[in-house]
Write a structure and sequence with these properties.
349 residues, mainly alpha, three-stranded mixed sheet, 13 helices
């Protein structure tokens, strides 16, 4: 019987130590069909170990809050999908793709630290999107009543507008830092423009919020431990963690930029797609996020598709995802990948 969780576990075990993962924890998480809440706890435990090893445990609060909100809202809004277990499954899938596919076939592996941040925290902004979506039925009901009373005044609607999330310490601005990285990657995306479009439309993109939140919090950490932003290995206490500004500029901004674009619509990639040689972390995040379709509870499929409906392999330098799921779901995965990523060596069957 095929089982993508078993395949991943067998292939990534030799690499887990590099990603600060405990093999027993990952094996327990992948091999056992725990109830939803327990599965979330196992996922959070894995995330905690990874991020604590990097000296950034404060980020865990975002994940815990995301888990709390998503679990609590299941009865009110059952159409929302899990994003905590999904983050860990995307993360381990990304380890497999990075070590077994990108490294040997293209020579452009993703930096481990960048993948830890991008893979595990790309959906932490979802509570803001959820809050925005919950207001829509309330506004729609008011508009329905208005129309039933024969009124022609404009419809009402609600907007969630983040204030100050883009403002970093030392007068730096997240949009400018992200834009510089997108330009370096050869992408034709206006970061500030996409944010402005998002606010104007009233439709929150969790990728944009996740990116800004991650960059904002880590910037505060660097300001505490390396306020002069020196390009030196500055350590806090006896942790052994270096707060060298080089890591912020190379890794933090890259991971945040990958998160910023991972959920943008396909029109953003019409003039330039994500190239793995130029933007490996953005490529890996988009690919892993799209392919991770098993064990994701939703309104139509309360338990999600079983891991036994999927398998993954590399054959003749091609990454192949096998799945026994409806064609519309399969086509959606293909569309998301092929519309945003450059290259044709990924197959979905």
């Amino acid at each position: 019987m095929i089982n993508i969780n078993e395949t991943l576990l067998n292939k990534i075990c030799p690499h887990l130590y590099k990603y600060n993962c405990d093999q027993n924890n990952v094996e327990c998480f992948l091999a056992n069909p725990f109830p939803f809440l327990e599965r979330q706890r196992k996922a959070i435990h894995i995330i905690e170990k990874v991020i604590t090893a990097r000296g950034k445990k404060e980020l865990l609060r975002h994940v815990v809050e995301l888990a709390r909100i998503e679990y609590g809202i299941r009865e009110l809004e059952p159409q929302f999908r899990d994003h905590v277990v999904h983050a860990v499954l995307s993360f381990v899938l990304g380890i497999y793709i990075n070590e077994e596919f990108l490294r040997p076939t293209s020579g452009t592996p993703v930096d481990v630290f960048q993948w830890e941040l991008a893979g595990l925290f790309h959906d932490i902004g979802y509570p803001v999107q959820i809050a925005n979506d919950i207001t829509k039925p309330f506004g729609a009901k008011i508009n329905d009543i208005k129309k039933s009373l024969g009124s022609s005044v404009p419809d009402i609607h609600f907007k969630i507008v983040p204030v100050g999330l883009q403002n970093l310490t030392n007068g730096k601005n997240s949009f400018e830092l992200i834009q510089e990285r997108l330009n370096k990657w050869g992408l034709k995306i206006n970061a500030k423009g996409e944010y402005t479009r998002m606010i104007a439309s009233g439709n929150i993109c969790h990728g944009v919020i996740s990116s800004l939140a991650l960059l904002y919090i880590i910037d505060l950490m660097y300001q505490r431990y390396n306020p002069k932003r020196e390009y030196l290995d500055i350590h806090a206490g006896n942790s052994g963690i270096s707060w060298n500004q080089t890591y912020f500029e190379n890794d933090i901004i890259s991971a945040s930029s990958a998160i910023f674009i991972h959920n943008l619509p396909s029109r953003c990639f019409e003039n330039a797609k994500i190239n793995r040689s130029k933007a490996p972390v953005a490529y890996l995040l988009k690919l892993s996020d799209c392919l991770q379709e098993w064990e994701r509870p939703s309104l139509k499929i309360p338990d999600g598709f079983s891991a036994t409906e999927f398998d993954i392999m590399i054959h003749k330098k091609r990454l192949i995802l096998q799945s026994n799921i409806p064609n519309d779901k399969k086509n959606k995965i293909k569309e998301d990948i092929y519309s945003s990523l450059a290259g044709t060596d990924v197959d979905i069957y």
